[in-house]
Amino acid sequence: MDARAWDERYAASELVWAAGPNQFVEQECTGLTPGEALDLACGEGRNAIWLARQGWRVVASDFSQVALDKGRALAGDLPVTWRCEDATTWVPAAEGATFDLAVLAYLQLPPAERAAAVRHAYGALATGGTLLVVAHDSSNLAEGTGGPQDPTVLYTAGDVLADLGDASYDVVRAERVAREVTGDDGHGGEDTRTAWDCLVRVVRRG
């Protein structure tokens, strides 16, 4: 999908995604010392806004201007800078930008484009900075629920580490994680199903 298609999707409803942060972003970033954060492919900014409320100064980017406008309205006076950029082509480091945290949450792309975005996010980190990637895991298609049904845009923690190539980093977590999803069971009630995500958290070495 291109930016125009996402603009249309974001314009069609009040919020496409939940207002609160992703559970794994909240879990992994709680306890980190706030500094400069980058949220690539931020959508409507739910993670960026949560980070700003924790004391981070955030640059939030997405290629959908409609999503960014919605995020800006939700953020109000919080310290978030909104940038209309494509995560696969924008290189923050080329602008001299360095961050203490870079987040890529549910950016589901084919391998070459995904690898570019991962490398751009990692390259924007200062020494000691954290890269956090959360995405629908490849195993979710057969073993989980929801998420994209195209296997070419699903990936694993191992794929993310491979995307980083010979970069120097320490792995904090690189694994498959379960996310419980509650929905209509078709009989007037609710049921809980398990979705599988990949989670990678690494710290850049000097």
UniProtKB/TrEMBL annotation:
<dbReference type="InterPro" id="IPR029063">
    <property type="entry name" value="SAM-dependent_MTases_sf"/>
</dbReference>
<dbReference type="GO" id="GO:0032259">
    <property type="term" value="P:methylation"/>
</dbReference>
<dbReference type="GO" id="GO:0102208">
    <property type="term" value="F:2-polyprenyl-6-hydroxyphenol methylase activity"/>
</dbReference>
<protein>
    <submittedName>
        <fullName>Class I SAM-dependent methyltransferase</fullName>
        <ecNumber>2.1.1.222</ecNumber>
        <ecNumber>2.1.1.64</ecNumber>
    </submittedName>
</protein>
<feature type="domain" description="Methyltransferase">
    <location>
        <begin position="38"/>
        <end position="129"/>
    </location>
</feature>
<keyword id="KW-0489">Methyltransferase</keyword>
<dbReference type="Pfam" id="PF13649">
    <property type="entry name" value="Methyltransf_25"/>
</dbReference>
<dbReference type="GO" id="GO:0061542">
    <property type="term" value="F:3-demethylubiquinol 3-O-methyltransferase activity"/>
</dbReference>
<dbReference type="InterPro" id="IPR041698">
    <property type="entry name" value="Methyltransf_25"/>
</dbReference>
<keyword id="KW-0808">Transferase</keyword>
